């Protein structure tokens, strides 16, 4: 155990040294909200030093609304003083090995004082067959001083260049610049028009929109109306890509920035929009419903209101990165995991593991708020949870989460995609349906994927592939043009290779896409249509004539021997050499990648409750090593003949690991268990060590229960307490070789010592630590220091000092966006709830 810890410490020492010279992308970064930009150089330095010591790799500055009482301290966005504190941040970041990104604006979405009425977002409605166009009137949400103004028209020909002009002058004399510019999720609500839309539509779609405008309101399913709706959405999507995403990216690159782009929420094709950025970024908002025993979900979180994270939505960002060879795929991570002051590290880890399995490898926490040290607890807070800052109840143990993310992302960033199936995204079938978002347009958001993804045959097929263990990426119509065909029909984008192009059951297909399918099939690509061929060519212009040619061409394509209309998808994929990983069948979630040429790398997470251990066949055969990011490398037992090997994988609910056929050495014994356990019971001594508002009296417990049930102030206590018990083993200590200590339910983090030896910190589910050689036959002394949430203390503080809620705009709200009031909360269970037992 000591050797493993020493190796880990040496790795981190080396990394800390290198980070002083070069920023780290493997370490997690964080959103850093500057409230009113009321910042000082001294507090900037202090907070950056905290971030560095906590194991973060960088910050993303987002100026937002201000703080009451700090109006005179507010600094106007992009003014000389603001640019000076930005330069100070960059200098200090470089000193500390921290990267710095910033939003190209304040709040979200793009907009501000130099957006004129002519270049502001517009909304069109059809009245009596004619367009009625009005400004949406939307202003920048959560704007900072100097960033207020109208939201930019994302389809305007000159809007982006005009918008960026203020940044040209601001950064023209900057000696240092942020790493990246950032564009938040679309959120231009109701925007569906621009001043030259009619002309653009005619040029692109080859007919007059105004002649068919009334068809946009058709609800009868009229065939021509459906085609017009598809054409309308297609035009919006093209303008968004050409006039918004690409110009912003081109400008950023020309000025020495890379770009992070949240394309979701927009009416465009997410795959094309994500690809336009250097770092595509998705978002994990809310709590997934993982079936992990002991994992809590805030009962106040509203699925109807916010939806839940979905890995298929995340895969749009990672697919775009894989196809175009982008190393980094980021995520806004941990948004509203639970109410303020109620988020634990054990809730964060599974959400991050889900992101990793969906192809994300550059985590950005949501987030931290700039807060002057003199403000104390809870300090300045952003309206949306989670708080990863210095005043968080888990700040002491925050480095443990960051170390885990760092170790995982090193491997994920330095490996290549290894997916077998390329799944075509038939967005035209979506555009043919009635929009469930405002403005009559489809907004492809990450919150409610049920509104645009899951109900489509494409969504159902993708869910099947995900659940049945297939490794796949998505591809758009435009992206198909990148592909060539190599030996054995392998599809190659130049950055990623695939064995099969899979076309979901779809009704509509552009003729340009059919031509690409024909080109690829003629070159030997293996193409599978799920259940049926598309029936209708998109585009209303000359439709009947084009439909006849389309049908003939599709029939010819379907007769090629390497093209299949599948009625048994699993069999047809297997015939093409596609691997179906047994990991998914066992209830495990995974991503498969490769190291160099031919060395497989799997990241596997147990996000369910059906698997604890068993024999598993790994699709890429060979002798596999198991690498636990936190404890080292081990060699699982194996059986079977070459090419059909199985490994005995032990992975408890909540745990994760890497599997690979290449390892430098064996650092840790493979954990085994006889299934036996010994319950540690008796008299527990409970002593409160530090915390707020005061230390409750010590207590003796005959059974483990929440310390909130104790008298005195324990129901309001937030801090650390020590549990101590002495016990004897039934039998010799030798019988417990390789035993583990299972702490049961921990609220929320436990530092453990046994007979004076430090066993480590249990901060995530399962709360289990290896005992090593610390046990003895008689007189074992077990000491467990447990730190709880700050929610219980906030129940009191919100009564005594409600004036901490002093922010402009939305101020501070609860998880349902209602006025925040912690005085209404019931006490949160706290401490060691157990049962505590030795497993051997």
From TrEMBL:
This protein's UniProt keywords: Signal
Signal peptide limits: 1-20
UniProt-listed Pfam families: Glyco_hydro_106 (PF17132)
Protein name as catalogued: Glycoside hydrolase family 2 sugar binding
Coiled coil regions, renumbered to chain: none
InterPro entries listed in its UniProt record: Galactose-bd-like_sf, Ulvan_degrading_GH
SUPFAM superfamilies cross-referenced by the UniProt entry: Galactose-binding domain-like
Record organism: Dyadobacter fermentans
Top-level lineage group: Bacteria
